[in-house]
Input
Amino acid sequence: MNDNSALTPQEVADILKISKNTVYELIKRGELNSYRVGKKVRVDSKDVESYKNKSKSIKNEDQSGLISERLKSYNPLNDELPKINGFVICGQDILLDILSRYLQLHPNGIQALRSYVGSYNGLYELYQGNVQLATAHLWDGDTGQYNIPYVRRMLPGIPAVIIHLACRLQGFYVAYGNPKNIKGWEDLKRKDITIINREKGSGTRVLLDEHIRKLCIPSYNIKGYNRESTSHLAIASTVARGGADLGLGNEKSGLQVKGIEFIPLQTERYEMVIKKEDMEKAPFKAVLEILRSQELKMELEGIGGYDLTEIGQIVAET
Output
């Protein structure tokens, strides 16, 4: 294989004998380097080889997947919680994978571990002391606010700081050409619409549930409501191949999937939550410095799909 050759996601999938969607997931999680040529994603063959070599041995410090599985698998009602050692950043956006890389290279930084669980579970883990940084995009339908009401309720008695990361556009994924003429939330009342849902605890699932609550739509009246998937890419892929008429997700992820149109519905606030007692500790100060750096902002602008106007700003203390 030529070290300088550029591969498409499908060619990478063929080499690794995995699905193309899994390739996108590896890219999203920062496990496989990629770049864009216009709107097309490309991967250097040398990066594929690097990924294969890295995957041949499991290093003690590379616990991200294990953490994610451990946090997903336990029941919060159980007495025993999974014990995780290290500095853990909780959340699913690729922005956090990039932040972790910067944090490892920062003079006062640390090697961060990643947990890919949703917003609700991330806040719960922060409350339990299992993670150091949680992220959330949880919309409260009664106040119209993002995150602040949930942090106050889910971290009782724990002073916390909410730091803005980015604004992202949430909306419906529909098949190209929008054959069902879907326009907005009211279409969830239609009997001829089948959806694919996100998992419980994700910010996207909470957004959907809040809107159907306000519209007084019983969830059992929505076809496909109980079908769950754990990523935006998987949701968009299901819609693209005709497995559902619509799914809810962010614009950036949906545009990576062929055969999808995006119907914008709501701008969401994606934010980081830190316990106030940790704010003066070196790794946390490094995180804030990185978030406010021009280098990180330029890299995220290159990826696209983010409004970074307020990145690094403290928006609330609870």
Confidence is low (pLDDT under 50) at residues 57-84.
